[in-house]
């Protein structure tokens, strides 16, 4: 098994997973359907949380006990969590600018490459984290600032490379559209080929570097946008992903006890051989995805990053049918 989902807390662990999955889908729907929902979720709440985070760290530096013992300060101190939260939130705001055509930026052609840029940045943040473990503890273990034991080795290298390849799997950078109801920013060329490769890579990242959180942020968080894209929001996967990621990061940053020390906490098996196997799968999937993309591009005689290469496929056409 990949996770320690057994014993007295197994029922709570499954209930926790189902709750996270359902709540992320519901929260995404509230945030994407109206301007007010999006602004509250990705502007107002992050602004309030920023004041909260700064207050905690200033008070902790001054030696205040309440701050030094605050769950966010104790359990969520890694640079990665803050980088991911604000990078994902920036993506959500940028996507809203595109779908609502806010200002000259939202209406401009050049800004259509923003989704590629912000997704690439988010992937690189995780890639750096994978390589960090490889450098810090090759063939052994190290303890993060949050007290989590992490292993370093080939699994980090393989998955780091898979992440870099995954960036190259994003095609049709300027093929960004708006849905008829103005609820979604669509990227039709981001089909199941990329989504599957991304989900495998990102799951592996969480499994390698967030072993105490991967049950939720590596499974529930990845499946929520993928299910939404497959069933009712075709072409909106990247918006779904950014929304759910930002919302999850906000929740996890303020309530780390849910994952870290409650009946819902779930550990991975944290076995080097399992990590290596998962990393190999992620790497092979991304190599296969990029190969397929390049073959399609060559047959069509197009640059796969400047032009859309999945025209004519079921996913692409279903997404375009929703566009203006």
UniProtKB/TrEMBL annotation:
Lineage of origin: Bacteria, Bacillati, Actinomycetota, Actinomycetes, Bifidobacteriales
This protein's name: Uncharacterized protein
One Pfam entry name: DUF5692
Chain segments annotated as transmembrane: 12-31, 38-59, 79-98, 110-128, 157-178, 185-201, 213-232, 244-264, 276-295
Organism: Bifidobacterium oedipodis
Keyword Transmembrane helix carried by entry: yes
Record keywords, A-Z: Membrane, Transmembrane, Transmembrane helix
InterPro entries: DUF5692
Highest taxon of the lineage: Bacteria
């Amino acid at each position: 098994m990949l996770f320690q989902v057994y014993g007295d807390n197994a029922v709570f662990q499954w209930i926790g997973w189902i709750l996270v999955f359902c709540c992320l889908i519901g929260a995404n729907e509230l945030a994407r359907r109206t301007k007010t929902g999006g602004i509250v979720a990705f502007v107002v709440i992050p602004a309030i949380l920023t004041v909260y985070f700064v207050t905690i760290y200033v008070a902790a530096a001054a030696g205040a006990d309440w701050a030094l013992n605050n769950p966010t300060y104790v359990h969520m101190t890694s640079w990665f969590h803050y980088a991911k939260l604000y990078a994902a939130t920036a993506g959500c705001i940028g996507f809203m600018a595109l779908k609502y055509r806010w200002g000259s930026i939202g209406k401009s052609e050049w800004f259509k490459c923003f989704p590629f840029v912000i997704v690439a940045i988010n992937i690189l943040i995780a890639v750096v984290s994978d390589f960090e473990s490889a450098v810090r503890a090759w063939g052994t273990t190290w303890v993060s600032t949050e007290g989590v034991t992490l292993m370093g080795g080939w699994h980090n290298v393989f998955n780091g490379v898979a992440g870099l390849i995954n960036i190259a799997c994003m095609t049709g950078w300027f093929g960004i559209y708006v849905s008829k109801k103005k609820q979604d920013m669509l990227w039709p060329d981001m089909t199941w080929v990329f989504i599957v490769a991304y989900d495998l890579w990102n799951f592996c990242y969480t499994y390698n570097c967030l072993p105490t959180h991967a049950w939720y942020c590596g499974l529930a968080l990845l499946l929520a946008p993928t299910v939404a894209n497959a069933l009712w929001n075709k072409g909106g996967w990247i918006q779904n992903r950014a929304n759910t990621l930002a919302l999850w990061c906000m929740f996890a940053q303020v309530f780390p006890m849910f994952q870290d020390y409650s009946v819902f906490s779930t550990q991975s098996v944290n076995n080097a051989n399992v990590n290596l196997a998962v990393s190999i799968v992620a790497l092979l999937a991304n190599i296969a995805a990029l190969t397929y993309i390049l073959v399609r591009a060559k047959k069509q005689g197009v640059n796969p990053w400047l032009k859309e290469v999945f025209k004519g496929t079921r996913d692409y056409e279903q997404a375009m049918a929703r566009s203006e």
